[in-house]
């Protein structure tokens, strides 16, 4: 177990049996994404990606709020050139390109950058109180960290346009119905459920999981025939791994497999 470093607004809350829990903790600002939070989140994800003992990452905020958006005070008077020179996209890359499974545990508001951050993850477990939205239009803006692109891919054009053009919030139940989240549980079980699911995934072959994630994400932007080739090649490569042979042997011998996560 790794305890919080009090100076950090993003910290590693725990690391047990291959599951790392990352918490955003800026309660006075409803976990709004300022430069410090973005930087700390990027640095921590980069570090966890390099650690072999970390197999799955759970990302969460507080019990009342996930991330309520970007910190408006940081950009209210900024010029286009100032926004360009900040290159905030570099802080999202370690999350977007993390090769390991990432699960978001969302309670309360996931708005603007918070909704975008959740959509950077692979699975979203939402508490009943969760509210998702892209309200940038109400500030005379639009999403700038993937909201227009990831949202339409997740829920389709018509639901995405409704959220983007009105800035409305959708409930956890609505989000589940439209395909924006994976599961909805009671608020007091959100992190628990995400962690249990993470442990279940962590016990599976790491290389197979990495290939699955890469193929799904990269294949989504390819023509179907090209994506199928990508899938086929990744499938074939896994036959060279220890875990594939162990999984097949365990199935035939009717025993529980012991995966090693090694080539």
Automatic annotation (TrEMBL):
<dbReference type="GO" id="GO:0006635">
    <property type="term" value="P:fatty acid beta-oxidation"/>
</dbReference>
<dbReference type="InterPro" id="IPR001753">
    <property type="entry name" value="Enoyl-CoA_hydra/iso"/>
</dbReference>
<protein>
    <submittedName>
        <fullName>Enoyl-CoA hydratase</fullName>
    </submittedName>
</protein>
<dbReference type="Pfam" id="PF00378">
    <property type="entry name" value="ECH_1"/>
</dbReference>
<keyword id="KW-0456">Lyase</keyword>
<comment type="similarity">
    <text>Belongs to the enoyl-CoA hydratase/isomerase family.</text>
</comment>
<dbReference type="GO" id="GO:0016836">
    <property type="term" value="F:hydro-lyase activity"/>
</dbReference>
<dbReference type="InterPro" id="IPR018376">
    <property type="entry name" value="Enoyl-CoA_hyd/isom_CS"/>
</dbReference>
<dbReference type="InterPro" id="IPR029045">
    <property type="entry name" value="ClpP/crotonase-like_dom_sf"/>
</dbReference>
<dbReference type="InterPro" id="IPR014748">
    <property type="entry name" value="Enoyl-CoA_hydra_C"/>
</dbReference>
């Amino acid at each position: 177990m790794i305890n919080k470093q009090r100076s950090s607004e993003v910290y590693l809350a725990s690391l047990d049996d291959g599951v790392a829990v990352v918490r955003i903790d800026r309660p006075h600002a409803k976990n709004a994404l300022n430069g410090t939070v973005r930087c700390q989140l990027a640095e921590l994800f980069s570090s966890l990606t390099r650690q072999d003992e970390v197999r799955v990452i759970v990302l969460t905020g507080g019990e009342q709020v996930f991330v309520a958006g970007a910190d408006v005070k940081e950009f209210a008077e900024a010029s286009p050139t100032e926004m360009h020179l900040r290159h905030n996209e570099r802080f999202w890359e370690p999350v977007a390109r993390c090769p390991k499974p990432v699960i978001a545990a969302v309670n309360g508001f996931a708005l603007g950058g918070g909704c975008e951050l959740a959509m950077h993850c692979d699975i979203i477990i939402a508490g009943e109180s969760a509210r998702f939205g892209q309200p940038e239009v109400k500030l005379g803006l639009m999403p700038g960290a993937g909201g227009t692109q990831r949202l339409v891919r997740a829920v389709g054009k018509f639901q995405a346009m409704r959220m983007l053009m009105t800035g409305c919030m959708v409930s956890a139940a609505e989000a589940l119905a439209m395909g924006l989240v994976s599961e909805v549980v009671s608020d007091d079980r959100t992190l628990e459920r995400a962690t249990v699911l993470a442990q279940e995934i962590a016990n599976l072959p790491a290389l197979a999981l990495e290939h699955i994630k890469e193929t799904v994400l990269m294949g989504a932007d390819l023509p179907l025939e090209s994506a199928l080739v990508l899938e086929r090649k990744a499938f074939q490569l896994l036959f060279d791994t220890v875990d594939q042979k162990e999984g097949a042997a365990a199935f035939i011998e009717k025993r529980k497999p012991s995966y090693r996560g090694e080539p």
